[in-house]
Amino acid sequence: MWFIISIVVIGVVVVPGLTLAKRIYDRKKHKHASPLPTVTEIRIFEDDTVRDRRYYLNIWIKVAVIGIIALLALYVVFVHKWIFGTRPPKILVWLSWFYLIVTYFVQDALAADFAEKKGYGKTNGAFWGLIPIYGLLRYAKKPKRKNVQSTTIKKIYGSKSLFVKYLLFSELVGLGIVVLLPIIYIVGSSFAKQSGLPTTFWPRNLTLDNYRVLFDESETMFVHWYKNTFYLALLNMVFGVLFITGAAYIFARFKFKGKKVGLISILVLQVFPSFMGMVALFTLYQTFNLVGRPLALTFIYVGGSVPFNLWLIKGYLQQIPRDLDESAMLDGANKAQIFFKIILPLSVPILSFVAVSQFMAPWMDYILPSFLLNIVPRNANIPAGMNLAEYTKMQWTLAVGLFEFISGTNSEYTTFAAGAIIVALPITVVYMLFQRFLIQGITAGATKG
């Protein structure tokens, strides 16, 4: 916090103060009366006209108004309590923080645009713009590296441009707050000492007891739940990608009777909710003695993901030219070699999207595991000293197990929060590894098919 305050003070007070002091010194040295610039002295380019300089004066007036509001916001946030000993209304403090954050990003964007127009690159401008006001002053003093007219500066600092920037960053900051506040709350709750629902975003007294409880097998079976879910997600990702890609390749490349009817039938299956088949699935699993076995859920997850993903991958494969298949066949390649050596490498973006979605499904599903994993299978190999209830809990997935922390009379919300943080780790890692393929894969199969 003090680092942020020091940066703001340097940008708002120190840098303009030093600039003004230097100008006063220069004025006295040259025996000028006023330390402030006149209209004809405001200069950004050497070929500026008096009209341009008057426009720059209007720009400085806008900057001054924005700066005054920022100083008032800083007063509300930091100074008011020190002077009067009481806090301002919370809504006023939050609005002041919001304005300061938005203004900070706006001035950084202005510095980036200004640097780009003068030929120094937007990245350099954005970097120096991280220091409030300094980025703008830095590139206002520098000579231009490319031929640019003063009208371009007018577009950057115009009222319309400033309004659009404030509107854009207000929306982005608002969305960032909506996204980050729940994350901060859940992270803070995972380190809280209490067991009930925390009333603050960040606890004063931090502890790791909630994480210790999760990994203590004498208190919870979190480790077993984590293993069950991870293995299930891994199998679902591998077999789902293989089976769905193979089926999509057949529908995209081969002609056979019933192809159109089959595609329409698969599409129609998406209309019916999965809950309609819950009783039938339970009967089948009980008949084949698959209830109470977490890895057996792979059949349902892979089969349920076929309709949507098959159409998605099929649309992508149809964009790959058939000439590649024909050229490979002329070189002596068979269908399997064409599929594994040509089609699969070219389908990495769409396959990455399907793989990530398949991996994420078991971590978030509660209804299906709670329906099929609460029964002990026939001829189960129950460890010695373990009763049926404990053996049943050991077969749960994370969604079912974590729900137990907040469903009983003695709710452990902070332990649940710690488990939620740990659950997010593998999903985050997989997303980061495949991030560069995901955006391309999301829209890849939507253009043709």
Compact summary:
This protein has 2 domains: 186 residues, no CATH class; 233 residues, MetI-like (MetI-like fold, Orthogonal Bundle).
What does this entry look like structurally?
This protein has 449 residues and is mostly helical. It has two domains: 2-187, no CATH class; 212-444, MetI-like fold. It has 21 helices and no strands. It has helices spanning 2-29, 50-84, 90-117, 122-128, 134-141, 150-157, 159-190, 209-215, 222-253, 259-269, 278-287, 298-304, 306-317, 322-330, 335-346, 348-364, 367-372, 388-394, 398-407, 413-433, 435-444. α2 runs antiparallel to α3, α10 (259-269) packs across α13 and α16 (348-364) packs antiparallel against α20. The chain is flat. The two termini are 54 Å apart.
CATH architecture of the largest domain: Orthogonal Bundle
SS elements, strand count: 0
Largest sheet: none
Termini, distance in Å? 54 Å
Count of individual domains: 2
Tell me roughly what share of residues is in helical segments: over 70%
Give me the CATH fold name of the largest domain: MetI-like fold
Question: What is the radius of gyration?
Answer: 31 Å
* Uncertain parts: 1-11, 31-48, 445-449
The pLDDT mean sits at 79
**Cα shape:** flat
What's the CATH C level of the largest domain? Mainly Alpha
Q: Helix/strand/pairing class, anyone?
A: mainly alpha
The CATH homologous superfamily of the largest domain is termed: MetI-like
The helix-strand sequence is HHHHHHHHHHHHHHHHHHHHH
Strand content: under 5%
Number of helices: 21
